[in-house]
Task: structure prediction
Amino acid sequence: MTVIFDTVDIDAADYGNLSLTTEQTGRVIFSKYESHNPEISDTIHGDLWVEEVTEQEHLGIAVDDGCIVRLHGTPRGEVGISKTGDILTSESASMREEVGGEAIPRYMAYDFRVAWINKTDGPERNNKLIQNAEQRKLDGEKDMFDSIASAFQKAVGNLSNSGETDGPAQVKTVLDGMTPDELRAMADMAEINADDDSPGDVGDSRALGSGSSGGDTDGSSVGAAVEDALNSPGGKTRGKKK
Result:
């Protein structure tokens, strides 16, 4: 729970401008000092220094509160700031310079007050964006694994039909030995082949088959990739049915 000015509960407030009293908007929150030296500062804010922020430490407002805070700084007058950090009125600075011979630089002091605070639904919208992104990621991973599962199921069936009694075990060995990138690449191949397949294609029934003549033997299908892995020097060579 974030409470400002002792009584304003941001969490309980409705969206829009918070209800603030004249005393609250008239309270000095902090001060800033603008140098008169052009070598230090090249800006002159004049009669009004305006800032808009989404967090304000003096008020205790954090970014997660979802507020836009408008601050107005008005000039209080010229001050001197000594080497030790003492903030002096212009008159006191002049007296110290006369007595001690110390050159004290001058600044314009600005006192900042809250002009208004607008509560937005930014944090809620941000959380929804994060949740949607995470859901899209999960959906993408599910689609990937569904594609892999479908492709391997076909490969296992074709290996079994061709006489491979240990076909499912061989396919599982290949799957377990793959990196995430290899699995994604295999899922992509499954989707490409699914898009390219047509009911009238003679080679469809063998696209995930044993790699015999007339089938897909160039490794572009998931079945061919599985068989390539099984028959590779690092894999288990598939024996032929006698």
Summary: The chain has two domains: 3-120, 125-230.
